[in-house]
Amino acid sequence: MVSMIGFPGSIINVVEVVGRKTSRFIADVGKVLIFFWHTLRWTFSRPFYAKNILKQMEQIGVNSIPVVLTTALSTGMVLALQSYTGFKRFGAETLIGTVVSLSMTRELGPVLTGLMVAGRAGAAMAAELGTMRVTEQIDALTTLATNPMKYLVVPRFIASTIMMFFLSVLGMIIGVAGGYFVGVKVLGTNPVTYINNSINYTEVTDIWYGLIKALVFGAVVGIIGCYKGFNTEGGAEGVGKATTGAVVISCMLILILDYFLSALLW
Amino acid sequence: MMIEIIDVHKNFGDLHVLCGLSLTVEKGESMTVIGGSGSGKSVLLKHIIGLLFPDRGRVIVDGQELNKLDEYGLNELRKKFGMLFQGAALFDSLTVWENVGFSLKQHTKFSDEKIRKIATEKLALVGLKDVEDKMPADLSGGMKKRVGLARAIAMDAAIILYDEPTTGLDPISADAINDLIVDLRKKLGVTSVAITHDMQSAYKISDRIAMLYKGEIQEIGTPAEIKNSVNPIVHQFITGSARGPITAE
To answer: How many domains does chain B have?
Structure first.
């Protein structure tokens, strides 16, 4: 046993706290991975709750369209405006289209859609499942011989992953359209040059890289929202914590994974 | 169907909730487990239906040990159960008839019309009419319990578990639920296990009453035997006295 004699009490306390928090963090990561594994396992086994999946696709996807449209449109327009300001200083205004389309497809389309859906649908998932947990509705499902992972989690996971893909496509299109509007109609850039530069410098792989990110972010939002809701403890306060936790963790994971995916899909 | 709980131990962290608990419920019997808050009553009930599993010991239902069943086996066994939760635990997003017919929808190939018809029959059995299309949020506490009970008996359960069936109800609604439990047992001949700290309810619905204290069964007997118990723990509990071996939390 290593002797602690000679170490001031405060240092030992700090080491203890850091150790405890690290250990809890590793345990939590392990629990999320196990939850993800169970979700995947149940995703590919019968019965398939098609009606639940469609309902979740509506709640997570269709109902998120306004917020995704607003975000993407605003981002595309601002991006065009800001790029113009910078590029004009060295006479490269014609490249606005390239910047907007590359940024929206590779990066901003999926990331902003991910963050928006995490805030809207991820929170809703955690709150709904959390309420079901604390009011024993999830236990009731089990007593009715229905697997709650299969009935509640799998449809949300599938819907979140698929709809994030389509929402990102929408985000990319609207963002690029917003950029075009500002670049051509407001700032007076030549439309042919704008479109040519957008198309010539944006490859199909750029779009696919963005959409691969969207699929990953969709899975993250679905898993984290369901995990936090499914493991809620302690009544209304617990539901509140689960909801906040779901949004914060999903957003952080999206931003962290975004870097690694960008590095991987260079 | 018979239920045997043999030397069951259950810990939550450092908390030893069930400490070698043994209890047998005979087929067709109505057993009520009484005990104070935090005595482990709900934990015991959750062990019977496989929502929790013992750290040590065995739970045997209809000759099958729950620990040894896989997911499929457990669900097949659970289809023979009905459970009434303390807060009814109705599914918020489903109407009353969809709640009652949930098991039928999941586990049979019946049409929606047939399921609705069965749900209406079960609702009538618990004294409810014209509530099929209401949402749970539109029901009173007593009505929610009745709907929960209708859901519990929808698949013609052989065992019904009641988690605090009268808690949160006014005395008249509580007594109506008690009558309903007795009535259902007579009509359906089910085995039932209830947990409660409501002694009026326990005396009314039980063939036998078991007193749970500190994770063990302290005494078991008919309502008359429990009423006349000389065990100081049982006596203090049934008379609702603050003085005695049981201390308030």
So the answer is: 1
